[in-house]
């Protein structure tokens, strides 16, 4: 009888270990979203609701605007004369002013998105990178999550 109880306990332990392992394999830690200006605009948010994605998962969701650096550069160069020396003088004045410090912060904040874009070799946008490994292109946030989950389920069912 004691031997039977020990075996049952051992089977229980194995069962819970398998359940724990398989649920951890399905756990999603991070989602990185690469988008452009038009998808972050008010009109774009109607189609491309990132908040729905954030509410659908416990994963950390980070959004990168791949045009952020270009936006900041446009802001700095707005209204500059065509004369290079005059333009350089105005840019230096702008960069020293409090008004443009926020633009400099935009540039600083844009650098990680450019680095990530290159690291993942993102080919088109929108792009969703799940756990630094799986990329889904050209769909809405919830469609990307669904495609990722389907892919993972197929992969784990093939492993069994």
Structure explained in plain terms:
The protein has 160 residues and is an alpha+beta fold. It has two domains: 28-66 and 124-160; 68-121, no CATH class. The protein contains eight helices and four strands. The chain has helices at residues 2-26, 37-40, 42-47, 50-56, 68-77, 84-96, 101-120, 141-159, and strands at residues 30-35, 60-65, 127-130, 134-137. A four-stranded mixed β-sheet has the order 2-1-3-4, sandwiched between helices. β3 and β4 (134-137) form a beta hairpin. The protein starts with a helix and ends with a helix.
Question: What's a quick, concise take on this entry?
Answer:
The chain has 160 residues and is α+β, with helices and mostly antiparallel strands.
Please report the distance between the alpha carbons of the first and last residues: 33 Å
How many strands, what sense, and barrel or not for the largest sheet?
4 strands, mixed
The mean pLDDT is 80
Order of helices and strands: HEHHHEHHHEEH
Query: Total number of β-strand segments?
Result: 4
Query: Based on helices, strands and strand pairing, what is the structural class?
Result: alpha+beta
Strand order of the largest sheet: 2-1-3-4
Give the total of domains: 2
Instruction: Figure out the total of helices.
Output: 8
Shape field: elongated
Uncertain stretches: 10-25
How much of the residues is beta strand, in percent?
5-15%
Helix content: 55-70%
Radius of gyration: 24 Å
Search tags:
single chain, 160 residues, alpha+beta, 4-stranded mixed sheet, 8 helices, signal, Integr_conj_element_PFL4709
């Amino acid at each position: 009888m004691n031997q039977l109880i020990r075996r049952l306990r051992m089977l229980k332990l194995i069962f819970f270990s398998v359940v724990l392992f398989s649920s951890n394999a399905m756990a999603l830690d991070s989602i990185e979203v690469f988008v452009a200006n038009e998808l972050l605009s008010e009109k774009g948010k109607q189609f491309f609701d990132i908040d729905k994605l954030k509410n659908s998962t416990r994963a950390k969701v980070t959004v990168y605007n791949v045009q952020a650096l270009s936006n900041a550069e446009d802001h700095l160069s707005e209204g500059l004369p065509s004369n290079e020396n005059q333009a350089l003088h105005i840019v230096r004045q702008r960069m020293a002013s409090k008004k443009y410090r926020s633009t400099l912060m935009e540039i600083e904040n844009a650098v990680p998105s450019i680095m990530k874009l290159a690291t993942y070799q993102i080919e088109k946008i929108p792009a969703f990178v799940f756990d630094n490994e799986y990329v889904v292109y050209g769909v809405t946030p919830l469609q990307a999550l669904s495609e990722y989950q389907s892919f993972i389920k197929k992969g784990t069912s093939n492993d069994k």
